[in-house]
Structure formats: C-alpha cells, structure tokens
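Duplicate of #3305? Posting structure anyway:
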C-alpha cells in the first residue's frame, strides 16, 4: 500500500454512483496571453524556530471528511470547507451555516479520490466565479468552473458548472493531486499526481507528453475561452510537450500554496523513505524538474529514470520515514506529507514568515523557518490547511474538525 493510500484509508467508502459529465475539453492548441506582474511582500523572521510551539483550537465540528479550507477573500469572513464526497460547506461564526455547492452526483469518492480542490477568482467580489477539481467515474481529474450573479450567494447551482480541463487518470485510483490556486501572476496552477501505483510504473512524472506528475499553469480568465496558455509557460512553443506544463517531476503534491513573496511551497508525498517540501521562488519555476521518479527527495530512487541532461531541483526540506531510514528522528519523521502555508496573519506576530506543514499518518504539524524544522504539535488526521481573508491559518481533519492554528513562545 502506498503512503498516500494509507493517508486516506480512513475515509468512508465511495459516495453515491458518479454520473459522467461533458467530454474533455481539448487543451492544444488554445489562445495565449502575456503574464502580468503583482506586488511582492518581503518576508519577516521574528521568533526563533526553536522557541515556537504551534497551538490548535477547534473552530467547528460536524464536517464530513474535509480535505481543505479556504476563503473567497471577499471580506465576508466566510470559510469554505471542501468535503471529499463533493460538497463545499460554509463555516461562519464558528458554525457550519450551509452548503455552498453540492456535486456529489458527479464525484467518484473514496480512497484518494473525491473533490480535491477549490479556488476563487482573485476578484470574486466583482467576478463571482470559482473553480473546483474532482475525480469522476472513469478516474479522470476534472477541472470545472462555477459562477453566480452575486458574490454574497449562499448556494451555487450545480447547473452553472462548465468543464475546463480533463486530465485522464486510467488504471490506478491513487496519486491524483488536484489542489488548485491562483499565483501572483494571476494564472491558475493545478498540481497533479503521477497517476500511478508505487514507483510511477508508467514514468508519467518525467514524461512531458503527460499532464500527470506535473504542476500545470493556465489562464482561466481569458475572455470567451475556458482557458488559455500563458506565453511564459516553458513549453508553449513545443511541438511535442504539453503546453500547460510548468513544473515536472512530482509524485503527489497533496497540498501546496503561494506565499505573499510569490514563492510556491509544494508538499510532495514520498514513496517509502522520504517526504519533501519544495520552494520555488517567484519567476524561477518555469521548466524546473523536481526529480521524481529519478529521485525521492534528494536521494536516487530509480537511476534508470535519471538523465545527465536534466538539472533536478532539490527540496528545501526532507522528512524521513522512521520505519525505513536508519537514524531517522521520530519527532521529525513523516509518512504522508500535508503541505501548508507560510503564516502572514496579524494575530500571531512571532509566527510571521514561518511555514506550517503536517503529516497525516503520524498526526503532527510542524513550523519550519530559515532551513530549520521546529518541534511537532499533535493534530490527528490532519488532511489540509488554509487561510482566511486576513491570512490567519486553519487546518481540517478527516474526523470532521476545522481547527485554528496559532503558536506560543517557549
């Protein structure tokens, strides 16, 4: 059993039978658009990492297999929690107040499948639309867009959905990735798993003709088109590589995020020995190869997949598996990494500039800053992180909790 399968084994069996949706939208060729710039906020380093102890406090309960939490950044104070079976729930004032979207009839759920991502338009208040990712009955990963006439709407009609992109995912049910988010360049990023069983037997992550095992970057706000290819994508002129690809060599980027500096932090789940966190600086990512399955973390995994013509990007943080790596410190070990966020809120000034990550199998979360991983805090069944309108940090757990994450100095 792969580590990510273990990570979601506690999830309930598949939801109601999925209903096929519209045929895939062709990605090549599509119109192109020039990238735009946005402001950069300098990081702050305050409390030393050795003095930080993360804290958790329950905000809401009663959710069903939640996988992520986010906000619409619209000033409404609403939090939106994605449930694996295909619902998005609204949490406000410490209570679940309703269902924002319910597409359980379209979603094949169970194991590592389900509704996996949610991203609101960066100008949601003026342009009330959002995108979701989910797995459907044939295993494919679907990116779809939904819209409403009012940003204050409490419920969105499933009939407003429009398929944007379909990533085929045949044979195996694991390693779907599926997390989505907008970068500082205004483009939508989609992380995909390698789509394979152990070891990426099809070598999808290193195959630039496949959308699996990649970080994709597309423009989903380009007029009448469902999406366009940014002209700054590394393979936009290629006659053989997929134009949507931005990064390659990913195994299963279960969760990732952008810091206010523009750095993309990617938590990539390992095979059997090493978990990794990658940090890709703003404007430096195009065409990078993160190594899988030539490498697992910084270590050779399958030498036959390695090439002397490729420069592989090292992770900034590597976590060992205590049951597989000699000398691995249990307090720093992980087996199913949950990527998180760099804290940029105001409630905990000493936490500024600290990256928070977690692990489902060991049930712990850690602070990380300036190359050092801090001490762990217990948070059982942690499955995802997210931020609110004020960039305060939250986590969700598969037993149905929404949790606020803070810290105390020791």
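Output from current build:
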């Amino acid at each position: 059993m792969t580590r990510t399968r273990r990570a979601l084994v506690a999830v309930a069996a598949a939801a109601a039978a999925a209903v096929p949706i519209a045929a895939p939208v062709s990605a090549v060729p599509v119109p192109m658009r020039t990238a735009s710039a946005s402001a950069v906020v300098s990081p702050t380093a305050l409390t030393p990492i050795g003095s930080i102890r993360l804290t958790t406090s329950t905000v809401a309960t009663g959710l069903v297999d939640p996988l992520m939490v986010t906000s619409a950044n619209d000033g409404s104070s609403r939090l939106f929690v994605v449930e694996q079976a295909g619902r998005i729930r609204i949490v406000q004032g410490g209570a679940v107040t309703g269902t924002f979207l319910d597409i359980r009839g379209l979603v094949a759920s169970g194991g590592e499948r389900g509704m996996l991502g949610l991203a609101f338009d960066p100008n949601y208040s003026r342009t009330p639309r959002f995108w979701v990712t989910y797995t459907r009955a044939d295993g494919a990963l679907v990116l779809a867009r939904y819209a409403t006439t009012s940003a204050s709407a409490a419920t969105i009609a499933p009939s407003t959905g429009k398929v944007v992109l379909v990533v085929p995912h045949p044979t195996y049910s694991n390693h779907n990735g599926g997390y989505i988010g907008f970068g500082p360049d205004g483009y939508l990023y989609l992380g995909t798993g390698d789509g394979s069983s152990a070891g990426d037997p099809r070598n999808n992550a290193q195959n630039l003709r496949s959308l699996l095992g990649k970080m994709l970057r597309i423009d989903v706000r380009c007029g009448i088109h469902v999406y366009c290819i940014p002209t700054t994508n590394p393979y936009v002129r290629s006659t053989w590589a997929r134009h949507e690809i931005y990064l390659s060599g990913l195994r299963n980027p279960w969760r990732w995020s952008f810091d206010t500096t523009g750095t993309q932090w990617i938590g990539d789940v390992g095979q059997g020995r090493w978990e990794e966190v990658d940090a890709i600086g703003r404007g430096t990512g195009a065409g990078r190869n993160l190594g899988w399955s030539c490498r697992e973390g910084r270590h050779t995994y399958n030498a036959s997949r390695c090439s002397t013509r490729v420069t592989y990007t090292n992770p900034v943080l590597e976590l060992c598996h205590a049951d597989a790596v000699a000398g691995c410190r249990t307090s720093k070990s992980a087996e199913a990494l949950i990527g998180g966020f760099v804290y940029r809120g105001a409630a905990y000034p000493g936490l500024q500039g600290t990256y928070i990550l977690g692990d489902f199998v060991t049930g712990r979360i850690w602070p990380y800053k300036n190359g050092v991983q801090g001490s762990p805090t217990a948070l059982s069944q942690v499955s995802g992180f997210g931020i609110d309108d004020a960039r305060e940090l939250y986590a969700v757990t598969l037993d149905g909790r929404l949790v606020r994450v803070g810290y105390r100095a020791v």
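Confirmed duplicate; merging threads. The two ends are 39 Å apart (CA to CA). Residues 3-22+30-409 form a domain with the Neuraminidase fold (CATH 2.120.10.30).
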